[in-house]
Amino acid sequence: MNYSLNPELNNKLKKEWDKIGISKEIQESLFKLMDMAAIAILDKEARRIARCLVDEGLPPEKKGVFNR
Would you kindly state where each structural domain of the chain is located, as residue ranges? Predict the structure, then answer.
């Protein structure tokens, strides 16, 4: 099952992909890849923000939260 981060974009893409005849299986694979990439980018950005917070003086006991 696909849990889209951007359902509106997915609906637009699905309509276009249907027009050009991309199979449902390939569409689902593309959606999964897009979601995985978006999650990876969000995770990377969250870690960057966490490092900035630590650099700005977040208490030491909270530092371990950001070392995934």
Answer: 7-66
Per-residue pLDDT of 28-62, as tens digits, reads 999 889 888 988 999 999 999 888 888 888 765 65
Question: E strands of the chain, at which residues?
Answer: none
The owner of tokens 């637009």 is 12
**Residues whose CB falls within 8 Å of the CB of residue 29, separated by 6 or more in sequence, listed in order:** none
Q: Which residues of 38-60 are buried (b: 16+ CB within 10 A; e: fewer)?
A: eeeeeeeeeeeebeeebeeeeee
d(CA 65, CA 49): 12
